[in-house]
Amino acid sequence: MSLAPVLARIDADLDNAIERLCNFLRIPSISTDPIFAEDCQKAADWLVADLTTLGAEASKRQTPGHPMVVGHITPLYSDQKPHLLFYGHYDVQPVDPLDLWNRDPFDPAVEETDNGKVIRARGACDDKGQLMTFIEACRSWIAEHGELPCKITFFFEGEEESGSPSLIPFMKENKDEITADIALICDTGLFDSRVPAITTMLRGLLGDEITITGPNKDLHSGLYGGVSMNPIRVLSRILASLHDENGRVTIPSFYDGVPELSDTLKEQWAALEFDHDAFLGGVGLSALAGERGYSALEMLWSQPTCEINGIKGGYAGDGFKTVLPSQASAKISFRLVGHQDPEAIRKNLRRMIEGMLPVDCSVSYNAHGSSGGIVMSTEAPAFEAARIALSDEWPDEAAFIGSGGSIPIAGFFQEITGVDPILIGFGKDDDQLHSPNEKYDLESFHKGTRSWARVLDALSRLEV
Amino acid sequence: MSLAPVLARIDADLDNAIERLCNFLRIPSISTDPIFAEDCQKAADWLVADLTTLGAEASKRQTPGHPMVVGHITPLYSDQKPHLLFYGHYDVQPVDPLDLWNRDPFDPAVEETDNGKVIRARGACDDKGQLMTFIEACRSWIAEHGELPCKITFFFEGEEESGSPSLIPFMKENKDEITADIALICDTGLFDSRVPAITTMLRGLLGDEITITGPNKDLHSGLYGGVSMNPIRVLSRILASLHDENGRVTIPSFYDGVPELSDTLKEQWAALEFDHDAFLGGVGLSALAGERGYSALEMLWSQPTCEINGIKGGYAGDGFKTVLPSQASAKISFRLVGHQDPEAIRKNLRRMIEGMLPVDCSVSYNAHGSSGGIVMSTEAPAFEAARIALSDEWPDEAAFIGSGGSIPIAGFFQEITGVDPILIGFGKDDDQLHSPNEKYDLESFHKGTRSWARVLDALSRLEV
């Protein structure tokens, strides 16, 4: 089965593909808001129906939350070919604040912009548009050759934007069905508009909320100021001690399990010539704030962080109130890499805090998410095959890159199915994910679809 | 004119005095809420009418805010006697949260409690009850002797609980009318139920709100975490640096103008045997948090403070948001003593902050109140005369004490009329000022009235 006519068909069918995507985008499948529960069901039904038109054996699978969609297409004579699994999510983020949108977020349209055509709607990129690049590649392949080049399982969830509560139980219960030779995920971005990317390193995430309590009620600073311990002062001292002067995190054993970056990867990343001046300049900054001695990409992709995401205490409204608060609290999160142990870090953080508490202050905690960093074994031939296939579609060669963020599903595939997933996506930095005016470049959608056709071709030729 | 029959008349007239106070307390003269503006007028009218029954030449004086009340009573043959001025305020604090009151805050009543009878209502102590102790003393004096022992000017304001915006302009415009030989203020408390007090040292107050700005918008910690400066981290470092390990404030020149406490005063305060264990224990604390080397009363009355009254930044609601905020801010206030210069301290604080700012962070300020500490010259004979008169009424000898809080009117008298006011009051620590269930002990009201009769007698015998 040759690739060229599949690519030609994708080009010819682009307008229809856009129309299908727009139909999908019209369903307001916001997973976090119960008001839209029925719409999540509709989005799942839409996917089942679309997969069925491809000849898939597809079904909606109910969960305690929003349903999963699973579909299988098994071509004749596929025994010696690798079995691929593709993951995406059909749910989207809320749309507030609505007045910042230039159009109804669930009335998609192709808009002309200074940077070319874009598809504008909530979910245009994250993840409906990305998900459809894969389905459209399959559609053209089937239309051209009558069947896919290998067996494919489609696996879609509807709770990615609300913490995926049903995902692990479902994957464990249906482990055999969702285990394949190669797993593909389309929920990431290009390195830039010329350089496609496979994300092979992801940072994990650990969150902890700490509350310092001093006096048993709010006090008046005229009556108690000078004799009573102020928990904001204590909290400030704790937070100020989390980094040393070089930006290095001071929690004991924090860097245990942080891998040394190989010279090869360092060189590859340096070759990307990342413009950190432009990156920081876009948000009004000029200097790298991470640990000295690392490049921007190394800080973002291979180094752990400790950030204070929120703080509150006392009276912070308009005007002034001379209160000595009873409590002050902060939300702290860590991006973790390599083999850092989230729970060990939580324990060491808490021990460090308790060592800094003055008499008369106590601390309580509210534990939040805990997931370790993820590193794919790129030695598996599928990674290099996919990288070459991507390079054929885009102006510059594809790169193995890291991601500063966390994509928990990648780790779940590793843990539950033993497969290192290949993360390929076509989003751009300005796609406004989770924000008003989300968009997906038409180029991302079109070349993304062509990219998947190339990747399917390349992976189907691998021996398993 | 002898004192004894005046005291006897006060005792005999107590029930009527309570009824008059209750009539006054029924007027909801909340100055901060415009809804009660008409009630503030009514309270002023009530005072004018009451002073008129004493034979005073009294009038309501309109201001841009709530009115002042000024009244004069000039006895015959008063030429050689000191002219006294008495200040109080007729406005009260709001009553929220109403559901925590055990009765309608504007339906006063005498209640029996474990600690004796109390008058329960908003303003029962602060300041209607206290103000009426002075008027009732005058009333009994006039009833008994036909006239007062010296010339008295009454000066009442209705904006004390809302920042006294009209006070300074009014005092300046009417300087001659409100200047007297001796000024008396009744808005403070007893040292304890046995020891009456004249407050001769008051702390000033300086407030500044600082906002640190890093990136020009909120960022996602997955995308920017590790390379971008986090303003909460910067703010924490600044706040943590404001005190050294001994609790001493580190702002340069901060202690300039802090007076050395005289050995006499130290001994007097030590003799009060202040129970700081009980004081701190009542709010769940056990250790003095101020600068080492000072007693609790020294910390509260003679030492300056630096307190963080509020802090905010990033996401502090339920759950977690991995945001790197653009801004973080804190409200900082200082209680000042002696001759510390508020504006010099503000300047030095800001210079210190600016010296700690990393590249990429800026700071903005919102200046709040600025008033210096106040120290009365207790060498003036009126102070000692009043102290002896108070000692005659209460079980233990009266003390010259300090106050951790600020009473701006005291400084205004010093500045505008050149007179150091004598601050005498009968409030107790558990009077619930500004809180639900405010009360004034019947003992405070009764012995307070008797105290003023004694003080009037003593002061009227001074030569001027």
Short description:
The structure is a homodimer of 464-residue chains. Chain A contains 14 helices and 18 strands.
Task: Write out key terms for the chains shown.
Aminopeptidase; 2 domains; homodimer; 14 helices; globular; Alpha-Beta Plaits; alpha+beta; 464 residues; four-stranded antiparallel β-sheet; nine-stranded mixed β-sheet; 34% helix
Total helical segments of chain A: 14
Q: Outline the low-pLDDT stretches of chain A.
A: none
Q: Helical percent range of chain A? A: 25-40%
Query: Main interface pair?
Result: A-B, 80 and 80 residues
Mean of all residue-level pLDDT scores of chain A: 95
What is the CATH architecture term of the largest domain in chain A? 3-Layer(aba) Sandwich
User: Looking at the chains present, what oligomeric state does this protein adopt?
Assistant: homodimer
Note the gap between the termini of chain A: 19 Å
What's the gyration radius of chain A in Å?
24 Å
**CATH domain class of the largest domain in chain A:** Alpha Beta
Fourth-level CATH superfamily of the largest domain in chain A = Zn peptidases
Label the structural class of chain A. Answer: alpha+beta
* Secondary structure tally: strands of chain A: 18
- Principal-axis shape of chain A: globular
Total domain modules of chain A: 2
Most strands sheet of chain A: 9 strands, mixed
